[in-house]
Amino acid sequence: MQDRAETDRATRAGEAGGPATPPPAVRVQGLWKRFGEQTAVAGIDLQLPAGKFIGLVGPNGAGKTTTLSMVTGLLRPDQGTVEVAGHDVWRDPVEVKSRIGVLPEGLRLFERLSGRELLAYTGRLRGLPGSEVDKRATQLLDVLDLAGAQHKLVVDYSTGMRKKIGLAAALLHNPEVLFLDEPFEGVDPVSAQTIREVLERYTRSGATVVFSSHVMELVESLCDWVAVMAAGTIRAQGTLAEVRGEASSLQNAFLELVGAGSRTGGDSLDWLGGKR
Ligand SMILES: Nc1ncnc2c1ncn2[C@@H]1O[C@H](COP(=O)(O)OP(=O)(O)OP(=O)(O)O)[C@@H](O)[C@H]1O
């Protein structure tokens, strides 16, 4: 069976006898979110190209999770619009939700299901036939090294295993755009490498990955496109080379962009270390 996402990708490429320009994966205009006195997202504009591996980076409290939550329809913005694959997230939620996969922060999963049951349930919710769900679940469990734990309850999974089963659930329906909030947190290096390979293969097929991270080396080695957030605003967005500019690394560019370049690294903590 061909998924909606697959059909759309093929249609766009096939019309007019050549590769058509797809709409951006995500288009955000004038997006605001306040929590009481706290402004979490302060009127951002973003245009994330389709078919890229995109990193959303920023210090703690920058507004990354709030932004991803609004982009994926989990949190209603105070103001502004979001389109995913050309569809408005708040006016056309069903169209958008059928095209996206989400690994949200603080993953809430059905804890009393086993890993395999969770995938079976997710697949049926996504409207896939049972036999296809079985096939895809077996392959994903195998690739993500969860086959041995497939009958264990999710409540008994480790942090990294939870990330992996959450990722499998987000990929099961072959979405057009995949949103991942800190996908590598708590994941061991072997599993991280596997996840990388799965995601790289997925973007090579024309799909888009948008993920948030604090780990600049990871973003630098994985992403071809980066958006830098700080204090609820977008400080830079563009290709990795554009955002890095003259800086020697993304880490250094990031420190400059978020205004942390001149921090003293704890000079005021003169009591810490030394003689006791
Ligand atoms: N539900 C909420 N109620 C009140 N304040 C919130 C809420 N969610 C987020 N905030 C505030 O909004 C700001 C942005 O938070 P957000 O979680 O989006 O940042 P982040 O970039 O994802 O941070 P981190 O990297 O630490 O996860 C922070 O100051 C946070 O305290």
Structure write-up:
- The protein has 276 residues and is an alpha/beta fold.
- It has one domain: P-loop containing nucleotide triphosphate hydrolases (Rossmann fold), CATH 3.40.50.
- The protein has ten helices and ten strands.
- It has helices at 4-14, 64-71, 93-99, 115-125, 130-143, 159-171, 189-204, 216-222, 240-244, 250-257; strands at residues 26-35, 38-48, 53-57, 79-84, 87-88, 100-103, 177-181, 208-213, 225-230, 233-239.
- The strands form two sheets. Strands 6-7-8-3-9-10 form a six-stranded mixed β-sheet, with helices on both faces. A four-stranded antiparallel β-sheet has the order 2-1-4-5, covered by helices on one side.
- Helix 4 crosses helix 5.
- It is globular and about 60 Å long.
- It starts with a helix and ends in a 19-residue tail after the last helix.
- Bound molecules: adenosine-5'-triphosphate.
- Adenosine-5'-triphosphate (ATP) binds at residues 35, 38, 40, 58, 60-66.
- Residues 1-12 have a biased composition (Basic and acidic residues).
- Pfam families: ABC_tran.
- One of its GO terms (biological process) is response to antibiotic.
Task: Offer a quick outline of the entry.
The protein is α/β, with parallel strands linked by helices and 276 residues long.
Bound molecules: adenosine-5'-triphosphate
CA radius of gyration: 20 Å
The assigned CATH architecture is: 3-Layer(aba) Sandwich
Strand content: 15-25%
Query: What is the strand arrangement across the widest sheet?
Result: 6-7-8-3-9-10
Assigned CATH class: Alpha Beta
Tell me, briefly, the overall form: globular
Number of strands: 10
Q: Which runs of at least 5 residues are low in confidence (pLDDT < 50)?
A: 9-15
Number of helices: 10
Separation, N- and C-terminal Cα atoms: 69 Å
Q: Outline the biggest β-sheet.
A: 6 strands, mixed
CATH superfamily: P-loop containing nucleotide triphosphate hydrolases
